[in-house]
Structure of YhbY family RNA-binding protein:
Amino acid sequence: MPTLEINAEQRRALRARAHGLAPVVAIGQNGLSEAVLREIARSLDSHELIKIRVFNDNRAERDAYLAAICEQLNAAPVQHIGKLLVVWRPAPDDEKNPISAQRRSTRRRSAPRKTKRSYQ
């Protein structure tokens, strides 16, 4: 499965969105196991953009993990900074996915919220 390609502008926007995120998956001493890959896939299905913490001091191994994750899960590498990997994959839009159905059903507010100052 090839990795998903994104351009520089998309990468910049995704890095900005990922700034406030906390890591949702951790890769420990056992490396990139099947269980970790399943958890990453599950997190990508529900969040699209995730941070992964790697407890490893070898930068080359972290690069290999990022490449393997993106290749096996058809995701795009967004950023590798320190021990954090940021990965993005658009959520599937099929009817079986309850998260996409929930996103379609939510509606935006037509007017801004009222604050204490707006009642004065």
